[in-house]
Write a structure and sequence with these properties.
- The chain is mainly α.
- The chain has one domain.
- Helix content is about 55%, strand content about 5%.
- α1 packs parallel to α5, α2 packs parallel to α4 and α2 runs antiparallel to α5.
- It is globular and about 45 Å long.
- InterPro entries: DUF1569.
Length: about 160
């Protein structure tokens, strides 16, 4: 029997925290990343709107600016409307921890970044890919991103 990824659509960060806690009890991986890699990656991206996005080299900045000007708004609207991201979108390799990271520590790091994101009262930094967003749009994009990655992990319980 082949397992397929879950269809996840989070409405709150409490749902994300509960899902991560459930996955810590055991899961089957149907994608490339384990729970620690997913949590580590999501924690990094949850921090960017508050702490600022990495600048990247000239080539990366040019590529992101081109995508933002041509497809960024469309991507953002699609993710906000459907609540889902397509698979296979490349990410910055430095945002993906190596396999073998401690899952409990990675989950705690994600929870801390979620708390930081929720508690932040200033304007979120504009995404180099999706542009400036309202607080609600930024919150929804984070939830879509988290649902995307965690959907590749199937809880055993």
């Amino acid at each position: 029997m082949t397992l397929e990824r879950r269809s996840l659509k989070f409405d709150s960060f409490d749902e994300v925290r509960a899902d991560v806690d459930n996955l810590l009890k055991g899961y089957t991986k149907v994608g490339k990343w384990d729970l620690a890699q997913c949590c580590g990656h999501l924690a990094v991206w949850a921090g960017y709107p508050v702490e600022g996005y990495p600048r990247g080299n000239f080539l990366v900045r040019t590529m992101l600016a081109t995508i933002k000007m041509t497809m960024g708004r469309q991507m953002r609207e699609q993710w906000l409307t459907t609540g889902h991201m397509k698979s296979g979108i490349q990410t910055m390799p430095e945002t993906v921890p190596a396999p073998g990271m401690d899952e409990v520590k990675a989950a705690e790091m994600l929870k801390q970044k979620i708390q930081q994101f929720e508690a932040y009262t200033g304007e979120y930094q504009a995404s180099p890919l999706l542009g400036a967003m309202t607080r609600e749009e930024a919150r929804k994009i984070q939830l879509v991103h988290m649902g995307h990655h965690l959907s590749f992990l199937i809880p055993k319980s």
